Amino acid sequence: ADRPAAFRGSGAPQTIEQPGLFGGYAEDDGFEAWDGKRPIHLNVELGEDFEPGDDEFTDSEPSEFQPVHDRPDVGTLARWLREDVFRGIVVMVGGLEPDEREEVFHFCRDFGAPVVAEATSGLREALAPISISHPDRVLKSVPPGKVLRIGEVPSGRFWRDLEELEKTDVWSICRNGLPGIARESHVTRGNAGRVLRALGEIDPADDALDHLQGNSARAAHIDELLETYPDSEPALVRQLSHYASIGSSVFLGNSLPIREWNLFAQWQRPVQLVRANRGANGIDGQISTWLGATAFHADAWCLVGDLTALYDLAAGFALGQVEPRGRVLAVLNNGGGRIFSRLPRLRSMSAQAVECMTNPHAADLSGFAKLWGMPHHLIRTADDFDTFEAGETTSLLEIRPSDRETAAFWRDFERIG
User: Are residues 280 and 332 in the same domain?
Assistant: First the structure.
């Protein structure tokens, strides 16, 4: 809610001007002009003399709204998919809505090109036979001539590398029409399922650059490392994924849990409802987002980092307002922002500068659990999972990996070809 227009530019107390707050990412012309293609920003200006009326909205039924669906022009996209397949093409599948998944699955399977499917696509496990193991390393060493992105912007490192790989053509199929990349690329806006159906039959592209060659060996090497260092952070994420995959949904936030889940979570059991929150706001409000998104879901799982949890300690106020049965909040407590500790540039920084970047801490999250009445379970080893069982109330699962094994794992992981 905004203060009345007269307060804008006045510097009066509690005045935050909200018109255009979301820039070009949201409509702000009201319901009449809204086509449903972008979010709508309703700027409610209430004065201090405002008094609510006697209207009762409890039993009101919302009116039906049908967003405008443009007929996708797929002719140019179809030609792009057929041309120059010898250069190699990779399909990167980001977050999808449930009504998009089936069509995307069949397209990827029939097209036959190597795939990088994120957990939020709901297809990560289903597309495993044609998915690239360790994709950031493989694609950086042998960049494809083309990348077809389907769905939301991928979270992996290679998508960012594409900013510099200008010889790689990029085409995105997405609902919001945003390219997700600053350099020149192509975008087809629309529901991915509708766009792919409009394409009709497409000739198979296969694996022209042999990105899948050696895939089994790379996957086996990763599994071997997870067994060699069972108490490392990646190994405990793998173990956690076996339990969470039985739940109704998984929520991931912020950077490190998303990346480690995509790389190391189990592949045998499909996990279709995976959401992730990763953006410019970083670690703010992640637990609150999870509680709101899964308010009516039993057996909802969440995996966040320790700093992310500490930034949202107040989120527990909502625990009494959501379905508690089988709900599990898992926190990777590795003593700070360890995702930054592996950045090459930190090697040349002073110890004090590194500390500023990684925010080390010694917080014991049992106090967080006690604050909001959650049972607290401490996981230090893979065997500790054997004693855990989700209950009738929300549980806090604090995962403290071995620093020594984690460092050794990443050292050996970087050597995988």
Answer: yes
